[in-house]
Write a structure and sequence with these properties.
The complex is a heterodimer of chains A (about 260) and B (about 270). Chain A is mainly α. Chain A is about 85% helix and about 0% strand. Chain A is globular. Classes of the chains: A mainly alpha (about 260), B mainly alpha (about 270).
Chain lengths: ~260, ~270
């Protein structure tokens, strides 16, 4: 190890960074349960702001959960077979396709949303329906699902396994169902948790695609930051934390597990 | 059904979806950018008109500052956390990766709690210290967003460094400073460039954070948003989006070719 002075500097930087990240989170939680944030904690602790949030924004929470589930189902239906197809045919065409569907990881959501609005904005029925937001969420989360499953599939000898099954008379569909899906499970789990976490937190696309009657949780948050008192905005953020933090932890656990298996 | 048709059938939903909702919309966006009176010269206008040029410069400067700061902080913390085992290490690591799940808007709000009118800094310091809505606030928001992402990239690379190289350098009489400069940094370099590209690209395109904080600051995502919603100047919004998208995509491609992994940009 380096000498102790260097270590001390490293420790200081690490702790300062931690404080920078943690202190505002604590402030937010505190503000959400304090009767009057301006007077401070001495004004008493209360859950009334959380209840107020529930009255005002329960719809947005349910919409976000609903969208996350719909997004999960869509990315599974599209992503699972696609990952299998890409794993079975590794080549330049597959590389390009994978690269292409990964564009939403790099191109800012704002630009993608503008693109969707330019093409489909005039189709009124579609534009004002929740499925329009769903398309945005699927666009953004699909590459995570595909890559997560693909990483696991690419690490195993799919060809030999399938040839064995085929020689025993299994049809392509049976092999997919009985060999590919069970083996891909760690990747499917990690991908699913990632998709749900990202969908619930998605703002950039959703802000452009939403309508006044369809507000998701992050859209509602932006709304409350602009127009509500600090305590309500904080309580709403607290609700978001309660939802997202366990999901993030589960996602990190599942991703680490899938990565171990893929190696 | 033969093998080949089955595999093709597997890829069909993906192909249909990405042509309908990714390829065609992007082509449309590009075409729209050339539909104003300026025609395709609109891309030159971005560089010629002071309003857009200044926006471009400011966005690049803030993003550069974010990248440098995030690299400095996260490399130091990442090396420390991957080389030392102590009580509370896991907690520190959890705190530093927690913000991965926060959208930009939430991070903007956290900066307001720190540096807004009712913010912590304004309350504990004498005088009126409000920085949340300035360039400093925006920079801190972007930094908040980038620290966890850079940290994870650096730590993954640090795990792969060979500690015996550092020992060898020390036994040969290298000072701690020289060990860092000559052994550790070169070993980490590909990952640092990759992490830096990710931080820079994310900051360039960050909409959520700018949306809460940059009400009076012209950064590219905010200008795209206001040109589109308030001025209905769709061609310039589309052109700026295309430029922004190409820049961030190229940067992240560079990042991936160097490190082999990506931490999501998002935000």
């Amino acid at each position: 190890m380096l000498n102790s002075r260097t270590k001390l500097i490293q420790l200081t930087v690490t702790l300062t960074a931690c404080a920078f990240l943690l202190v505002p989170m604590i402030l937010s939680v505190m503000a959400g349960v304090t009767a009057n944030y301006f007077q401070g904690i001495s004004s008493g602790l209360t859950l009334k702001w959380v209840f107020r949030v529930w009255e005002l924004y329960a719809d947005s929470i349910f919409l976000s959960l609903w969208l996350a589930i719909a997004c999960l189902i869509s990315t599974l239906i599209i992503g699972l077979p696609a990952a299998y197809g890409l794993a079975r045919h590794p080549g330049w065409l597959s590389r390009i396709l994978e690269e292409f569907i990964s564009l939403p990881l790099a191109v800012p959501g704002l630009a993608l949303a503008l693109a969707l609005l330019q093409l489909y904005g005039s189709m009124k029925g579609f534009r004002i329906s929740w499925t329009f937001i769903l398309v945005g969420h699927v666009l953004y989360t699909l590459p995570f699902m595909v890559r997560s499953i693909l990483a696991v599939l690419a690490s195993m000898d799919l060809k030999t396994l399938e040839e064995g099954a085929a020689s025993l008379g299994a049809s392509p569909w049976q092999r997919f169902r009985d060999i590919v899906v069970p083996n891909a499970m760690p990747g499917i789990l990690a991908g699913s948790l990632t998709v749900v976490t990202l969908s619930i937190g998605e703002f950039n696309l959703t802000w452009m695609l939403h309508t006044p009657y369809l507000k998701t949780l992050p859209v509602g948050l932006a709304d409350s930051y602009a127009s509500m008192r600090l305590e309500v905005a904080s309580a709403y953020t607290l609700v978001f934390f309660v939802l997202i933090v366990p999901l993030l932890m589960a996602m990190q656990w599942a991703s680490a597990r899938a990565q171990r298996i893929a190696q | 059904m033969t093998n080949r048709t089955f595999v093709l059938a597997c890829l069909t939903p993906l192909l249909v979806f990405s042509v309908a909702f990714l390829a065609l919309p992007l082509v449309r966006l590009f075409l729209v950018s050339g539909e104003s009176e300026a025609g395709w010269a609109i891309y030159l206008d971005i560089l010629r008109k002071p309003r857009y040029l200044n926006t471009l410069i400011l966005t690049v400067l803030v993003s550069l500052a974010t990248t440098v700061a995030a690299l400095a902080v996260s490399t130091t913390a990442g090396m420390f956390l991957s080389r030392n085992r102590f009580k509370g290490r896991g907690i520190l690591l959890s705190i530093m990766t927690l913000p991965l799940a926060f959208p930009g808007v939430v991070i903007g709000f956290l900066i307001i709690l720190l540096g807004g009118r009712q913010g912590l800094i304004n309350q504990i310091t004498p005088g009126h210290v409000v920085f949340a809505y300035s360039v400093i606030g925006l920079f801190l928001g972007y930094l908040y967003f980038s620290i966890p992402r850079v940290l994870l990239t650096v730590m993954a690379a640090a795990e792969k460094l060979d500690p015996t190289l550092e020992e060898a350098a020390r036994t040969l009489g290298a000072s701690p400073f020289r060990v860092v400069v000559d052994v550790i940094l070169p070993g980490l370099m590909p990952s640092l460039i990759a992490a830096g590209a990710i931080a820079f690209a994310t900051a360039m395109g960050a909409f959520g954070t700018a949306f809460t904080l940059a009400t009076d600051i012209d950064v590219i995502p905010m200008v795209i948003y206001t040109e589109f919603t308030l001025s209905a100047n769709i061609a310039i919004a589309a052109a700026l989006s295309i430029v922004l998208g190409v820049v961030t995509w190229a940067l992240l491609l560079l990042a991936r070719s160097l490190s082999g992994t990506t931490v999501s940009a998002g935000g």
